[in-house]
Amino acid sequence: MSERYTHIHKSNYYEEYKRIRNQLRKYHPFGVLLAGISYLHQPVKNEIEQLQKLPWLVLLLIKWAFIDDQYSVYNRKNITINKFKKILQMVHDLSKKVKMPSQYSSLFLFMRNVAYQQFLYQQNLNVYKFGRQVDLFLKDSSFFDDKFFSMTGLHIKRFLSLSFVIIARFISQKQKSLNISWFRPLFSEYPKEEVEKFLSLISINIDSIHTELIKTEKRQREPYEYYEQTPFIKMLIPVEN
User: Fold this and answer.
1) What is the structure's pLDDT at 47?
2) In the chain, where the domains are located
3) pLDDT digits (tens, 9 = 90+) for 123-168
4) Contact 159, 153 (CB under 8 A)
5) Which of 222, 185, 234, 168 has its CA nearest to residue 6?
6) What is the pLDDT of residue 190?
7) What pTM was estimated for this model as a whole?
């Protein structure tokens, strides 16, 4: 691909991104976050209908609301779900400004981008993956456990056990949120302080999202960002006290 085409390609993408950004700047970023969560949890008939909500683009839109260099929580309006959907459609339309399948040197590269972006959301949460962690790290694992404890303040076994508790919450009860009271029956075995430490490892305070994002994403918005996995994989929604 020529340098001239690449330059035009990035320029067109960024101009469309600015239109979306300018719309987002009208609204409170926390409201954008809540609208996105509400939208993703609207009832659907099946998994295909759920994927048609394009969760990877919802998370991209939320990221843009929090990473903006004019980020502010003051003098911003609350966003309605309908307005959120309209802006989300703008993000979807932005796909016309990234590479089309015919513009890749190999169709395989296009499919790899799509797979990397989307397949994560097509995998059901299940206990087998955690069972694998138990098998890998709880047998003769003193080296890994010592290293894990030095980094987190928790032993691997305790971390995995509390992870199973969360899985039970979201698989068996189809819940949308989590708070520390869910763990209260376990406090005799897992003290509240230990549970709080565990939750702090897998969550982030909403007020810290902007700061954490700009630490790792200092570049301008560019077309390949459209296919990246969301940084929120490492920043789960905060847990209520």
Assistant:
1) 78
2) 3-122+207-230, 128-202
3) 766 667 777 777 777 666 688 888 889 988 999 889 988 988 888 7
4) no
5) 222
6) 95
7) 0.78
Quickly list H helices, 120-237.
128-137, 142-152, 156-172, 192-201, 209-216
Q: What sign does the dihedral 170-174-176-178 (CA atoms) show?
A: negative
237 contact partners, CB below 8 Å, separation of at least 6: 33, 37, 177, 203, 206
Query: DSSP labels for 88-128?
Result: HHHHHHGGGGS--GGGSS-HHHHHHHHHHHHGGGGS---SH
Quote the CA–CA distance of 203 and 162 in Å, as a whole number: 14
Predicted confidence at residue 9, as pLDDT, reads 65
Confidence grade of residue 67 (pLDDT, cut at 50, 70, 90): very high
Burial letters for 33-68: b for 16+ Cβ neighbours within 10 Å, e otherwise?
Answer: bbbbeebbeeeeeeeeebeebbbbbbbbbbbbbbbb
Average pLDDT, the chain: 81
Token pair belonging to 163: 């992870």
Could you tell me the two tokens for 6? 């690449």
Query: Which pLDDT does position 238 carry in this prediction?
Result: 41
Q: Which tokens belong to 190?
A: 């897992």
Q: Is the dihedral of CA 21, 25, 26, 29 positive or negative?
A: positive
Contact status, residue 99 vs residue 223, Cβ threshold 8 Å: yes
